[in-house]
Amino acid sequence: MRFSRFPGWLFAVMAALMPLAPVRVAAQPAAPRLQRADLSGYLGWFNGNKRDIAVPFDRWYNESVFAGIGFGYYWTDHLKTEVELSGSSGDEIFTYESSPAPDGRGMIFSATTHEYSNRTLAVGQSYQFFRNQWFHPLIGAGIDLDWERHRTETPPFGPPNLVRQPSIDETTLKPKAFVLVGFKGYLAERAFFRSDLKIAATDHLEQVIWRVGFGVDF
CA-CA distance, 12 to 204, in Å (whole number)? Predict the structure, then answer.
């Protein structure tokens, strides 16, 4: 028969390799799966510019701790919508005023303490570079709804008849546009480390925030 001329040793080699075929297929990497959402928490260093009380100079406060939590939904491998809730601890800056003394001799100086803190709801769109990698640079932009609390106090200083500014404790909603740049680096298949720099502005630069945190994909 024609099959009798087929080398017997080749049958033996093929028979020996057959059990290895499933092992080789199983060893191939699985097709990448797009995770549709992520959840992250972060801490940051908050810098605020209060030019409105110190015109024409920019007046920054930068000792606030910033914390937040964010939820993101992926429309594609690269485009993600993010919603974040965050807040900053209070920090103070000081302004100084002078006026002539009531008796006309010299000047009287007074200092006012301004304390600021923020609560923010942010909605943004980000673009994440690369696909199925351990490291992803990202850029983003969006809108902050920023509830800013402003408290003032002018301590008693000077003659009793000096007219002092009344104390203020008010919360104002201030929408802001923001941009950010950062990266997302994976520590495991679904656990990641994230860091970014966020800049928010109205008609002038108002906030610069550096953030670091951890999250999970699901």
Answer: 79
Topology of the domain covering 33-217: Porin (2.40.160)
CA 157, CA 9: separation in Å to the nearest integer?
A: 105
Strand, coil or helix: 166: coil
Domain ranges, ordered by start, for the chain: 33-217
- Cα–Cα distance list, 181 to 16, 129, 142, 169, 178 (Å): 55, 12, 12, 34, 11
Query: Which among 164, 218, 194, 201 has a CA at the least distance from the CA of 44?
Result: 194
- Residue 121 is inside which H or E element, if any? strand 107-128
**In this structure, are residues 80 and 128 in contact, taking their beta carbons and an 8 Å threshold?**
yes
Spell out the residues 6+ positions from residue 211 whose beta carbon is closer than 8 angstroms to its own: 42, 43, 44, 66, 68, 182, 194, 195, 196, 197, 198
pLDDT tens digits for 88-120?
999 988 877 776 766 667 777 777 888 999 999
Task: Please state the rounded mean pLDDT for residues 154-178.
Answer: 77
What is the torsion angle, in degrees rounded to the nearest 10, for the CA atoms of residue 132, residue 186, residue 68 and residue 200? Answer: -60
Contact predicate 79/138, CB 8 Å:
no
Q: Does the N-terminal peptide bond of residue 56 adopt cis geometry, omega within 30 degrees of 0? A: yes
> What is each CA distance from 40 to 28, 98, 212, in whole angstroms?
31, 48, 10
